[in-house]
Amino acid sequence: MTNFSVSARESTSSLRALFNPGSIALVGATDKSGWSRNTFDNLQAHGFTGPVHLVNPRTEIVHGRRAHRSLSEIGQPVDLAYVMVPTPVVLPVLREGARLGIRSYVVLTAGFGETGAEGRLREQEVLDFARENELTVLGPNGNGYINAAARITPYGLPILSAPARGSVGVVLQSGALASSILAFAQARNVGISLLTAMGNEAMISVTDVMEYLIDDPATKVIALFLESVRRPGEFAAAARRAAAAGKPVVALKIGASQLASRTAQAHTGALVGDDSVIDAAFRQLGVIRVRSLEDLIITSGLLAGTPPLPGRRVGVVTPSGGASEIIADRAEQEGLVLPEYAPETVARLKEILPEFATVQNPLDVTGYVVVDRTLLSRALAIVAEDPGIDEVMLLSDLPRGVPADPELALSVYHTSSRLIQESPRPVVVVSNVLVDVSDFGRKVQEETGYPYVAGGIEHGVGALGAAVRWAEQAREVSSRAPAPVTAVPELPAGPTGTWVEHEAAAFLARNGIPVVPAELADDEDTAVEAADRFGYPVVLKAVADGLGHKSDIGGVRLGLASEQDVRQAHREITASLRAMDAKGIGTLVQPQRSGGVELLVGVVRDAAWGPVLAVGLGGIWVEVLRDAAQRLLPVSTADVRSALGELRGAVVLRGSRGHEPADLDSVAEVVARVGELALALGDQLESLEINPLLVRGSRVEALDALITWR
Amino acid sequence: MTNFSVSARESTSSLRALFNPGSIALVGATDKSGWSRNTFDNLQAHGFTGPVHLVNPRTEIVHGRRAHRSLSEIGQPVDLAYVMVPTPVVLPVLREGARLGIRSYVVLTAGFGETGAEGRLREQEVLDFARENELTVLGPNGNGYINAAARITPYGLPILSAPARGSVGVVLQSGALASSILAFAQARNVGISLLTAMGNEAMISVTDVMEYLIDDPATKVIALFLESVRRPGEFAAAARRAAAAGKPVVALKIGASQLASRTAQAHTGALVGDDSVIDAAFRQLGVIRVRSLEDLIITSGLLAGTPPLPGRRVGVVTPSGGASEIIADRAEQEGLVLPEYAPETVARLKEILPEFATVQNPLDVTGYVVVDRTLLSRALAIVAEDPGIDEVMLLSDLPRGVPADPELALSVYHTSSRLIQESPRPVVVVSNVLVDVSDFGRKVQEETGYPYVAGGIEHGVGALGAAVRWAEQAREVSSRAPAPVTAVPELPAGPTGTWVEHEAAAFLARNGIPVVPAELADDEDTAVEAADRFGYPVVLKAVADGLGHKSDIGGVRLGLASEQDVRQAHREITASLRAMDAKGIGTLVQPQRSGGVELLVGVVRDAAWGPVLAVGLGGIWVEVLRDAAQRLLPVSTADVRSALGELRGAVVLRGSRGHEPADLDSVAEVVARVGELALALGDQLESLEINPLLVRGSRVEALDALITWR
After folding, report:
1. CB–CB of B259 and A332 under 8 A?
2. Where do transmembrane segments lie in this chain (chains A, B) (predicted)?
3. ipTM value of the model?
């Protein structure tokens, strides 16, 4: 983690230079290119005040202005070169720039890593040169950035209206989405601090820009569009630092469908990780995962405009019964709670509401708002004081057109704004439907301080749910740095292959994992002696070198109730092993356990994220329903408890169907210990699986295990 | 059904009069009421050309115009009275109107059925009077309607901009939502034919308006906001007629959360049905259920502008890799298929696309559209001819502002419009994000015939999925009228209470349901004789009058392997029944079955929808996961197969975990026969449950059953 931080500090200062140039050269500017035209127009139209130099070796006049034949000919200092020359000319341009002392580059030119092996070589050459010469390069194959705060917009696609300045920083792994995101943010009146299109991330990565935005005082929320998380370790460190800094990270990460994986691969050449691992990682890192561009911006806007929300209990105030019901449905999906209002709240509301109103949560103050414009605000003020809620959700639209009496409308919103600002609990405003904030709506927000309005019940309640969950997680995440590994496992040198049950079980037992007792027997008499010691019934399992799936060969005999049974089972098992020419033949004798709930606990190594812990209930739960919860290692017992709580089969652990309830603390302790052990085994470990881990009340025992080494 | 149709025809003609008045009286008009002001303003502002008479007994001037003291004083014919007088005056106004020959009424006044028992009486009085005098009354407690096609807008809440004329008919059980729906429809450029706020539905119900809209040539799609389906039989008939007429019904039905049920109850006094029954009913009736106001309008708009879509295979054409990936994720959620393009399609695309483009589905024609504006259209034309797809989805935005060269922009859209219209396969256009259609966007659509643009990938792909599923279902639904009941069951007269297993099983067996053999034994010897006949092992079950849950009292003994076991089990069971003072004591002897998959098949009577069939897998599937599929009766074997296919446990039926695959045709036949039998039993039946229904390959047998009579 220390390493990441140091590199982050370094790039933060070079990124500051990249994103805040006083002068810009457009290299390869030409009337023939839409990108050139767009970049030039964007710089002119959106407020860049420094000099813009056009460079073209073969044309005198470009975009109606005199062009220079090379960077050298400009004869003035250049802070940023925006490079759109043909692919083979990129490196020569960087060489010339480096000689001239130009430190920052955006490379729009494509034809690098995204095209295959040859392109990757070209990209590496550029990267090597840049590193040697301490250049900062954004791209290649990227459209540039929009520094809305400083009105610096070297961006290759059209920007129609000037992006509002604000506190959402946007990082995109797809430059083409920038126009849509800017349009939508503008429609929602969500202000942007900085937007960057990453391109191939040869040098500057998503994580680098995240680190920059964490340190950027203009940025409160970081919004990401991700095709892949290229450097999970760095990403995790940045996400933790963002949580510690109180800056939410909201991410639209594609690749939930297999089809999307294929698309992304073709598009960027990047590996799309297993989607459920991403889910788990984001949850643990406090990164809010959204599923649409609308949610990306609406959620970011809400988080930028709202203090951390204290809890899930929401008091809802609306002027419509129908909308109340839609909100109730939607709130339940989001895990929000709408508690009944306290008796004094109800009494006070009854005083102001018409007789035919029903006082409840969600509150419908009724269509009487048509008669009494202050009704909604007065109800809001009462609900905001209810002791049983954490925050208020107000359903209210900004004006769509210019009203007949604009001053009156402004004064009504002014009153509401004051009430909201003075409210003892945070107030989140959500509109009925997702329509653009109108010009008059903007004016209302500017002139009266009316807060951010989350667009529409569907996305607005979703954003509220995300904000509440984020606040819950952020405290946890920021306090939960990766735990140091305490226990060094007893490990024989250089293990290889697969450890079959008794070997794995003995290893687990030596390292503090409770394992059902077992004795190896290489003849009938030994098996019977062991069975006598354990008491009947017992289980006999086949043992042989490298034998994995015992059940497939009839190698597991349950419910052996007598000496005779044990002898026969031992004979049959060893006979069939001999028939297979197996080595190291014998049986494992265990007492037979009955009842309880079977869990599966596994650790596998994800190519991107490293060791991942999965827990689930055995049998159909994991095999048919794939009902497993995943967590990146390390995990605390609290992590394990939250993972167990996510399972659809959680109800079984709580004691449904006549089972004794599982002692979740005991389970969590054993599972966390498994995680700790797996982490301590480091790179040697390929996978570790306990299946089943039997739980009866507080008794937790591994009945079988399999460890695969790399 | 005949009944519904006749009443529907009648109300269609009276509704035509209600919705198309030539003159309107506002009774109870006053400057003090926002509703009065709004209704008057709406009629003035949105194009009503007939006379509007204001009636107020105590004020001479209202809304700046001379008012009449009563309906009688108007002295001119009145087609519609819009009534907003105090509650006790409503009936006198209707009396006066009836005398004057006024046939149509909107009653805005509240204080009727929604307030409790007394109000219900008042409402009944109004209803009785209206029926006797052949008056048509919309409401009470409703805001009126907006006939956008005819520009007649007697509506009590503000309508800011004139609703565009179009082909979506909207029916609302919450008047307060009308403003939001109109605003959103306007933002999406979706035209409305008629919007009605139903109020208490004393006389005119949602179903009546649906029937009217089915016959209304201006209406192509029916959009509903429902708090409850008040008359399910009529609703089902209307939905079937809509499907037969090729008019999709899209419904936002609230009440998915328990909280919402409570809210709705308080709000309308209506019963909110069990949400999963609603899901099942809508699915069978071809009604598209949506979850947000945005989806209600976006989906309706898409259906109004698109021919029935032929299938799930979509060819996607976009100018953005990032958007392609979001679309791929979203399409998978919707069950849409994006097949690979045929070799000739790929070859033709490669000819026109830049070298660095990857030719696949979804297709990203790349940012090269910045250079070549025709690229997207040319790619669209090629993809539309691909033999492996059913329709094309084009990702394209309408212009947000007025472009620098409006004529050029119009001509580009003109070319696209022609291509889309001439396309051999339907083309659905979806925009990147959900922003309002701008004024210039409207102009583009009007002047170039550019089609409907579904707003944003999130909602647009959802609407596309809904439209595809609708087209699949509509054919089925319209051909599937309720089947006549063929087999009359053998039923003893006047059954009551609960039939315990042997009684229920014998009844099922007599009526063609395969049941595991069983014999009643009232002494040990008879039990042993039966066991000998079946062969061992056998099962013994306790029998006594009215005994339901046998397992709870230890009344089920499995795996009895010998005469001795049977004797002992019989002795123990009868002893414990005697200890309970039970009557009609004995045991039931059955051969013990092993292996196979256990299903639960039940029929229960839903208060609103009548008999509902539920099927699920036994054990944790229904008990813990509540994994059951429901269908309204009657059901065909195809219905049952589709219900089985919906189960999360469907994979178990297909033979996972070493089970023999179930013969789904055999299962469906038995389950459909259960439905037929339950339906034939009519109102006498309270519930019928077979649990388990054991399935091994094509062998399907009821092992236990319970029938409860009303």
Report:
1. yes
2. none
3. 0.88
**Is A215 buried (19+), middle (13-18) or exposed (0-12) by CB count in 10 A?**
middle
CATH code given to domain A517-591:
3.30.1490.20
| Per-residue pLDDT tens over the stretch A553-592 | 778 888 898 999 999 999 999 998 888 888 888 999 999 9
Which amino acid appears at position B348 of this protein? R
* Residue B702 φ/ψ, nearest 5 degrees: -80, 125
Tell me how many degrees the CA angle A585-A588-A593 measures, rounded to the nearest 5.
155
CATH of B597-709, one of 3.30.470.20, 3.30.250.10, 3.20.20.70, 3.10.180.10: 3.30.470.20
Q: What is the pLDDT of residue A552?
A: 67
CB contact under 8 A, A187 and B371: no
Q: Which residue has the tokens 């307060």?
A: B176
C-alpha distances out from residue B290 to A320, A333, B194, B300, B459, Å: 20, 15, 20, 10, 10
Residues of chain B with CATH 3.40.50.261: 2-303, 309-479
Contact B624 A157 (CB under 8 A): no
Sole residue written with tokens 């810009």: A24
Report CA-CA distances (Å) from B436 to A159, A452, B407, B412, B654. 17, 18, 22, 21, 47
Taking contacts as CB-CB distances below 8 angstroms, the residues of chain B near A432 are 177, 179-180, 183, 293
Beta-carbon separation of B356 and A115 below 8 A:
yes
CA angle B665-B667-B668, nearest 5°?
65
Q: How far is A292 from chain B (nearest CA, A)?
A: 6
Of B200, B191, B245, residue with least CA distance to B223:
B191
Residue A496's CB is within 10 A of a number of other CB atoms, namely: 9
Q: Which residues pair with B702 in a beta bridge?
A: B515, B693
Q: Which two tokens stand for residue B272?
A: 């909110």
Nearest CA in chain B to A31: B371
Q: What are phi and psi of A610, to 5 degrees?
A: 80, -155
Pairing of strands B104-107, B52-55: unpaired
Q: Torsions phi, psi of B327, nearest 5?
A: -65, -40
CB B496 within 8 A of CB B582: no
First to last CA, chain B: 25
Smallest CA-to-CA distance from B239 within B254, B224, B227 is with B224
CATH 3.40.50.261 domain range(s) in chain A: 2-303, 313-458
Q: Which phi and psi angles does B104 have, rounded to 5°?
A: -115, 140
Given this structure, which CATH class describes domain A2-303? Answer: alpha beta
Which residues of A fall within a CB distance of 8 Å from B338? 259
> B295: which 2 tokens?
């989806």
Q: Are strands B538-543 and B556-560 parallel, antiparallel or unpaired?
A: antiparallel
Selected from 3.40.50.300, 3.50.30.50, 3.40.50.261, 3.90.45.10, the CATH number assigned to the domain covering B309-479 reads: 3.40.50.261
Q: Determine the distance in angstroms separating the CA of B293 from the nearest CA of chain A, rounded to an integer.
A: 7
CATH class in words for A313-458: alpha beta
Is the CB of residue A395 less than 8 Å from the CB of residue A355?
no
Compute CA distances B382 → A394, B341, B424, whole Å: 49, 10, 10
User: Which residues belong to CATH 3.30.1490.20 in chain A?
Assistant: 517-591
Q: Note whether A180 contacts B656, CB cutoff 8 Å.
A: no
Q: Global pTM?
A: 0.90
What's the N-to-C CA distance of chain A in angstroms? 25
Classified as helix, coil or strand, B378 is helix
Encoded amino acid at A7, one letter:
S
What region does A346 belong to: left with phi over 0, alpha with psi -120 to 50, or beta? Answer: alpha
Find the CB nearest A329 among B181, B256, B294: B256
User: What's the CA gap between B7 and B228, in Å, rounded?
Assistant: 21
